[in-house]
């Protein structure tokens, strides 16, 4: 029996607006007491001083590209999980657009087996909606569910044919399965590289109109209404998208939605020097969209914060803006960036962050809660708001460094991560 | 069980069963369950739920194999395991003594495994046999000359 007392910290909950002072007593991986002050403990209880630290339930990212199998030069399940741990993300949901794609039960089992052997955090996987993510024929959804898939999505692409999507939505009902929707209209997206507007005109880059996202979202949600399916709208980038989600939520459609840190923080004006670390799909929109997305997050329109962690090699990202691939990494910088830009400036509260980045994602996927309370597994991170994070090459555990935060410094640092009562990441030690 | 949406057998049989005082549930791929089914029909989306309802009879429907191309389900294999009577499911059915019906012809290995056909409470062959007799009788009665004859015979019988 091992006992550890985490004392002096302030814990974040969904119920309290601000972090509250609590000591946490952990025994054999489980939280056995959460009290304002725990003083009477056995002599052999290990003590971890958390004074000045914010203790946050382990984050869960519902949108991660792990690249294995197929592009292990960009990321593997092992390095992706390591990156997650580095950022305080203790659970991740892998997207199925690998090579070959995760579109059958065998592939699901293969990925989960590797995860079981090599991943430092909990790894779940999605499966494709259609075979080969090609949008024509339904994948063996039942077999993927039997293998452990907990969401289906053709992420990276929408399901182009609305009839195929309708059937998938109906069929998913047999498995109580949620569908992840990547919304864009291929024909409108066209050869676009960034948001369509004044900035794209100034830079001479082909644009992607927000209508591409809005039309597809509208279509997908109308089909969700028709079929009664549970759908999750991935990486919403526009104010128009927010309005659509609000409307369908009011109509009682079972829709949830996610927003990424980068769509909250950055916009098209950040691309001024053709930096491909600002190129992603959907693209960064306008400063007004930033504001609207943040407002929607605070109002509860968004259920989840997700990073859309999308590793690419430096070589690929050094290509010209039009040729470089879409996507940036996010697992390792998400929390620090949100603290730096919003929480520290009172634009986002800790309770909203933990609801959207820990509680709600797990509820969405019917996974066990890791909120800090008696009886739960001890899975949390210690965040030091007084320290800073510099996203240097050495800082990243991901194989790729395609991040707009690369070599930038943010206020706040994920200092330690505890999983199953064990300190799995401790920056105070590695620095020493 | 199965393709309720396209099945005339299901549409009429369900109403008939209802009239005879039976409770009716349906189970199949949600793509093949009708949205506008009668309100007395109880839909199930999982086999386990349908079984827990403790039916006395499982009435399987013939799957038109070309439905796969139209994306009503992904594959025969998955259909069989998810919506058909696999060996494991049949073992349980046999233990519970549930009757099995099917309008025929059967797709062996899709709607059911072969063993079901030899099951004591499988009514499929009886259905075929009765079906032929019933069809013969209906055709006979529909023929105008026979109808006259029948009418005369009935009249004679009454008088
Ligand atoms: Zn996507």
The fraction of residues in strands of chain A falls at: 15-25%
Strands of the largest sheet of chain A, in order across it?
Answer: 3-2-7-18-19-20
The separation of the N and C termini of chain A measures: 29 Å
Provide the domain count of chain A. 2
Total beta strands of chain A: 20
Please state the structural category of chain A. Answer: alpha/beta
- How many domain regions of chain B? 2
Number of helix segments of chain A? Answer: 14
State the distance separating the first and last CA atoms of chain B. Answer: 49 Å
| Order of neighbouring strands in the sheet with most strands of chain B | 1-2
What is the helix/strand order of chain B?
Answer: HEEHEHHEHH
The biggest beta sheet of chain B reads: 2 strands, parallel
* Strand content range of chain B: 5-15%
The strand count of chain B comes to 4
Structural commentary:
The complex is a heterodimer of chains A (432) and B (159). By secondary structure, chain A is α/β, with parallel strands linked by helices. Chain A folds into two domains: 3-55 and 375-426, Urease, subunit C, domain 1 (Roll), CATH 2.30.40.10; 58-364, TIM Barrel (Alpha-Beta Barrel), CATH 3.20.20. Chain A has helices at 77-86, 105-118, 141-147, 162-172, 186-189, 198-203, 210-227, 239-250, 261-265, 287-299, 314-317, 334-341, 350-364, 427-430, and strands at residues 3-7, 10-11, 20-21, 23-27, 30-35, 46-49, 54-57, 59-64, 89-94, 122-125, 152-153, 178-181, 194-195, 207-208, 230-233, 255-259, 304-305, 379-390, 409-419, 422-426. In chain A, the strands form five sheets. Chain A has a six-stranded mixed beta sheet with strand order 3-2-7-18-19-20. Chain A is globular and about 65 Å long. Chain B is mainly alpha-helical and 159 residues long. Chain B has two domains: 8-122, 3-Layer(aba) Sandwich (Rossmann fold), CATH 3.40.50; 124-159. Chain B has helices at residues 8-19, 47-52, 76-83, 87-96, 124-142, 144-158, and strands at 24-27, 41-44, 57-59, 99-101. In chain B, strands 1-2 form a two-stranded parallel sheet. A two-stranded parallel ribbon of chain B has the order 3-4. The A-B interface holds A 131, 137-143, 163-164, 167-168, 170-174, 176, 227 and B 29-31, 45-46, 70-75, 77-78, 81-82. Zinc ion is lined by residues 155-156, 182, 234-235 of chain A.
